[in-house]
């Protein structure tokens, strides 16, 4: 007597694992894209410089308005809050900060902001200027 053959099953495409992988990729690309969005600064009348250079994308852009108020990522904050924000960034030695101050901001206000950045441990500080035409 010959052994009976079992009928062959057709292959199936499992859709659930494929959906899981696609959702994972979607979330991954969304998170990467959010990290690439640049921090929009305020409309300031920046000082001009003939020696201005393009800086790498900073972690924080600190905007100083003409009244001396400080704005970071769209939030007004005092200097102590700025110092705490920068100190809590993780590896502060690798934190890039760019300070953008209006032309009419007193130099003392600029120095206070820079001083609080340094108190937080930030050593990589850039100054935003406009290129001279």
From TrEMBL:
One of its GO terms (cellular component) is plasma membrane. Pfam families: ExbD (PF02472). The keyword Cell membrane applies. GO terms for molecular function: transmembrane transporter activity. It is a single-pass membrane protein; Single-pass type II membrane protein. Keywords: Cell membrane, Membrane, Protein transport, Transmembrane, Transmembrane helix, Transport. Belongs to the ExbD/TolR family. This is Biopolymer transporter ExbD. It comes from Acidithiobacillus ferrianus.
